[in-house]
Amino acid sequence: MAVTRLLIHAPTAEALKRAQNNARNLLKLEADAEVEIVVNGPAVALAITLTDADILSRLVLCGNSLRGQELTAQEGVREVAAAVQYLAHQQAQGWAYIRA
Length: 100
Fold this sequence. Notes:
Order of helices and strands: EHEHHEHEHE
Number of domains: 1
CATH architecture: 3-Layer(aba) Sandwich
CATH superfamily: DsrEFH-like
CATH topology: Hypothetical Protein Ychn, Chain: A
Strand order of the largest sheet: 4-3-2-1-5
Helix content: 40-55%
Radius of gyration: 13 Å
Mean pLDDT: 97
Low-confidence stretches: none
């Protein structure tokens, strides 16, 4: 069976909380799954406060949202220019998408 590659989109703080649970639950069932939590909008303010190393390694933060809120991503957390572009490109590469 092919490895699951999943994008979990989290545009709000509540969605980011759900996205973390979604990621953990999938990884319990499929330890080799590739899971990214793509964060934009108001959710970036919560994302930059997270400390769970496994979750941090899966975050992809929207640079537009960070700049718009005058925030900075934690060191080592992935930042992309625009979440919308990243989501589109990853889906074109075969990644599945859900909105948390």
